[in-house]
UniProtKB/TrEMBL annotation:
Source species taxonomy: Eukaryota, Metazoa, Chordata, Craniata, Vertebrata
Enzyme Commission numbers on file: 3.4.24.-
Cofactors demanded by this protein: Zn(2+)
Gene name of the encoded protein: hce2l2
InterPro entries given in the database record: MetalloPept_cat_dom_sf, Peptidase_M12A, Peptidase_Metallo
Keywords: Hydrolase, Metal-binding, Metalloprotease, Protease, Signal, Zinc
Name of the protein described by the UniProt record: Metalloendopeptidase
Length: 280
């Protein structure tokens, strides 16, 4: 009998040790968090998910919720449909699309440099130009709030882009959020995505399934872009570290982008804003 009690105690103790290992394992993280090893690098969206999931309760308040993980939707206003060309920033007579911005004084010199590099990333080869706000009515107000997020397209007046310090102040993340500001949703939300990727529904965290909905977006007659800075990574919102998005045919194709826009991302911007493709 004593032996049995002793054995039970040992097994309880062992399971407690196991539980502790799990709870304090550095590899453990919130939904969507994936520790990367080997050649795969974290995509811009992986970094966003990591930050926003940790901050989820602070980001989602009574008036603003996040769609697809980082697209702000304000419940105070009727949701603006941005699927066609209804939420574009206006185009100047000189052919450029100027986006006026205000940068919070909370950003230090290094943060400012990284955010401006993100802007330059969008400007390169496109007709978009970011200009410090002087008098413009419509502008983005870049603030280090909780998480990385942006509204979709131009809403009219002041609109916040949140780039939390330091997690969101990375060139890829900044560029990704500005793509939303320009009016683009995530690449794998395209209506025709099932021809190109397989969504592994059982591997997605139960409460994050909605982030994988499809939307009636304008594909602008451009091919599906696995390497878009707006593409989810393979492990986005994974429940147990299993892949959630797999390219059809060839699972070795890299999904998403770390820091730069893809060539098609630039074409996308120029098509949506009716600009000629620029080579610089
Ligand atoms: Zn996003």
């Amino acid at each position: 009998m004593e032996r049995i009690i002793l054995l039970c105690m040992v097994s309880i103790c062992l399971s407690a040790v196991q539980a502790q290992k799990f709870l304090f394992n550095q590899k453990w993280g919130p939904a969507g968090y994936k520790e990367w090893r080997g050649v795969n690098e974290e995509t811009a969206m992986d970094k966003i998910i990591k930050t926003n999931e940790l901050k989820a309760t602070q980001i989602i308040d009574g008036t603003t919720t996040l769609r697809e993980g980082d697209i702000a939707v304000s419940s105070g206003r009727p949701p603006r449909i941005c699927f066609a060309r209804s939420c574009l920033w206006s185009k100047s007579v000189d052919g450029h699309v100027y986006i006026a911005y205000n940068l919070s004084p909370e950003y230090n010199e290094m943060d400012t440099m990284l955010i401006k590099t993100g802007m330059a990333n969008i400007e390169q080869g496109t007709c978009v130009r970011f200009v410090p706000r002087t008098h413009q009515r419509d502008y983005i107000d870049i603030q280090p709030k909780s998480g990385c997020w942006s509204y979709l397209g131009a809403r009219g007046g002041r609109q916040t882009v949140s780039l939390q310090i330091p997690n969101c102040v990375q060139v890829g993340v900044v560029s990704h959020e500005f793509m939303h500001t320009l009016g683009f949703v995530h690449e794998q939300s395209r209506l025709d995505r099932d021809n190109y990727v397989t969504i592994m529904w059982p591997n997605i965290s139960r409460d994050r399934l909605r982030n994988f909905e499809k939307f009636r977006t304008d594909t602008l007659d451009l091919p599906y872009d696995y390497g878009s800075i707006l593409h989810f990574g393979k492990y986005a919102y994974s429940q147990r570290g299993e892949p959630t998005v797999l390219p059809k045919d060839n699972s070795n194709i890299q999904l998403g982008q770390t820091s730069s826009l893809s060539h098609i991302d630039r074409l996308k911007i120029n098509r949506l804003y009716n600009c000629d493709d620029m080579d610089d």
